């Protein structure tokens, strides 16, 4: 069974945005992943937020998530969806096998073609089959990469600056 983990979103409250982004970048490299995008921006005077999207091997997903969660003061929200792509993968492989068999048959027909018109028609069909084979191989490779790597998007919000009577708030 092939399972594609769709983008996982997690919203974290952290002490300092820049430090958290750097820590996530380091964790990503440690877990053999890569950073897709990273942003740190100022919401209002002195208040910062950030977003970082990473890709990690699917077998390191749980480990990566645990490490990211350890950076949080509080986990505000988590959203995860998963899609089973087994049926699509099996369908693509079946279509690929059929097209490859068709290509072999066209090659055999080509050996027996004598007229220029016959040769041109077989070449056209052979080219069409080859194009479809390459397209399906690309789709299979894309699906395989999607299954092999998990996408995690982390939204970061800085912790409130002031606490009065047990209530945290941000001036301005």
Describe it.
This protein is an alpha+beta fold and 172 residues long. It is 48% helix and 33% strand. The protein has a five-stranded mixed beta sheet. It has a two-stranded antiparallel sheet with strand order 1-6. It has a two-stranded antiparallel sheet with strand order 8-9.
> Which structural category fits the helices and strands?
alpha+beta
What is the count of helical runs? 4
Strand order of the largest sheet: 3-4-7-2-5
Order of helical and strand elements: EEHEEHEEHHEEE
- As a percent range, the share of strand residues is 25-35%
Uncertain ranges: none
Any key phrases for this structure?
4 helices; 5-stranded mixed sheet; 48% helix; 172 residues; alpha+beta
Short description:
With 172 residues, this protein is α+β, with helices and mostly antiparallel strands. It contains 4 helices and 9 strands.
